[in-house]
Structures are given as C-alpha cells and as structure tokens.
Amino acid sequence: MSEAVSSPPAASRPAQSELWKGVRRLLREPLGVFGLTLVLLVIFGAVFADLLTGWDPTRINPRDRFLDPSGAHLLGTDQLGRDLFARVLHGGRIALYVALVSTAISLAIGIVLGLIAGYGPRWLDNLMILVFDATKSFPTVMLALALVTIVGPSLTAVIVVVIIVNVPGYARIIRTQTIAIKTSEFVTAAQSMGASNARILRVHIMPNVIGPLVILASMDIPVVIAIEAGMSFLGLGVRPPTPSWGSILNDGFSQIRDTPWIAIAGGLPIIVTTLGFTFLGETLRDVFDPRLKGR
Questions:
Q1: 222-276 pLDDT tens trace
Q2: Separation of alpha carbons 54 and 224, rounded Å
Q3: pLDDT recorded at residue 120
Q4: What is the pLDDT of residue 143?
Q5: Which of 2, 102, 184, 205 is most open to solvent, judged by the fewest CB atoms within 10 Å of its CB?
Q6: Alpha-carbon 185 to chain mean position
Q7: What contacts 176, CB < 8 A, 6 or more positions away?
Q8: What is d(CA 53, CA 39) in angstroms, rounded to the nearest whole number?
Q9: Contacts of 54 (CB under 8 A, 6+ apart)
Q10: In which element (H, E) is residue 47 found?
Q11: DSSP state, residue 295
Q12: Other C-beta atoms lying within 10 Å of the C-beta of residue 92
C-alpha cells in the first residue's frame, strides 16, 4: 500500500510561484544582480571578518603607523598602526547591525501606528498625523545631539535616533494604504460577518500593505548606514576603539596630509554599500511593483 504524498496547500503554491518568478526577474536585471553582489560581499565581509584577516582591529602598533597598502596590510594602517582592512570589515558589522535592528524596529512600530491611524477614528488620525509631522520636522543632527547630551554617545543612541527618524515615514505610508483598503469589498464583507477590528487589521489589511513598505525599507538601509557613519564621524556614535566606518573616515580627514589611505578605507565601504542596497532596492521595486518601473 503506497503512502500518500502530502502537497503544500493550494493557496501557498501561487504565492511561492510568484516569489520565484520575481527572483528570476531580479536575476535578469543587470543592475539588480550588481546590487545583490555588492550587498552579499558586504555581508560576507562583516560575518567572516575574523577569518578574512588575522589582525586585531583595535591593536595599537606605533611602529607601523601610516603604512601603505601591502600584502601584510591590504588597506594600510592608520595613525596608531592599526590594520585598516580589519577595521573596515569589523566596522561593517556595526553598520549592518544598526541598519537591520533599527529598520526592523522602525518597521514594526510604523506598521502598528499606521494601522491605528488609518483604521481608527478621524480625531485619532489627525492627532497621530500631527505627531508624525512634528517628529519628522526635527533635523537628524539636532535629535542626535539632544539624545547624546542626555545618554552619552553609544550604539543604542544611534539606533534610537534612526528609529525616531524613520517611524513617521513608515507610519504615514501604512496609514495611506490602510485608508484606501478599509473601504474595500472584502473588508466590508468581513465586518458584516462580525469579524473584530483586530482580526480585520491582522488578516485582511496588514498583508496587503506591508509588501511595498518592506521594499522601501531595503532602500532606506544605506540612509541608515549613512546616519550611523555621520554620527560616528561627529563623535556621537560608537565609542573608540570600536571600529566604525564613520570614525575611520574621521581619522582619515584629520590625517589627510600624511596619507590618503585612511580616508579611502573609511569612505569606500560606505559608497559600495550605498550603491548595492540602492540598486537592489530599485530593482526589487520594479520587479514586484511594475507600475513604478521607470519612475
């Protein structure tokens, strides 16, 4: 007697098919493949930093100050004799950690607030829009300075600043889409069948509004990395001797008369990461929302 072979639910197969079609379309786009390659290289370097270099990124060796790139030091050394290649790789860990953690938290908070604003009563919507606009009006640098004055420079301060900056934008997008969807026929049908507001938001509205926001968040990752690098450049981010692309760039700016390699080592990964996530995010948007292609 043969055993029955289980198959995935019928509803999941079309979603999986569309996902694979999107992946294949992505791999046919040269800019998308280029962006994906750059992103994977940055992730690979950050994850396997300890295996790719034998140097301690915080080890000081004054006798090796300002060495040019060589086989021993691929990107040279800084003013304290620290290996720049090791510092760049470990700095990538900080950049990606801040970008992923802060973006994920911003998405979660933005989705919840956007759903409440879009589905709630009119007075609550107006109040939340006022809060979003007021928060968005503060310059990022002023927020960073105010927070660092209170809690001091730290990685947590960088993450909190990014969350405050990003949440209003995500919440407004979710709010707009929720207002457009809550009058749809399938939502009206669910309400007539007695479905609770929580179930309508979770089952019927959220799956239809979260997709474009995830793509937008992937395009915001280089912005978050730039914020982290900028705060570290100004001394408002991670504290030395922890390596950060912004602190490396700051060292390069102050030592530009002695050697250009420090500034190059600090600026190059920021450029590569920005290009990678920008090209990948643009291609993902074009692939999964063809209506935006070319805009």
A1: 889 988 888 888 888 888 888 999 999 998 888 888 888 899 999 999 999 999 9
A2: 29
A3: 82
A4: 82
A5: 2
A6: 35
A7: 118
A8: 20
A9: none
A10: helix 30-47
A11: -
A12: 25
* 111-117-120-121 Cα dihedral, nearest 10 degrees: 180
Q: What are phi and psi of 95, to 5 degrees?
A: -60, -50
| Residue type at position 172 | R
- Tell me, what amino acid is at 87? R
DSSP characters over 143-165? HHHHHHHHH-S-HHHHHHHHHHH
For residue 258 the two structure tokens come to 């002695």
Tokens of 22: 């999107």
Q: Global pTM?
A: 0.82
- Spatial separation of the C-alpha atoms in residues 117 and 128, rounded to whole Å: 6
Q: Which residue has 């709010």 as its token pair?
A: 175
Q: Which of 293, 116, 109 is nearest to 213 (CA)?
A: 109
Structure token digits, residue 20: 């694979």
pLDDT digits (tens, 9 = 90+) for 80-101: 889 999 999 999 999 999 999 9
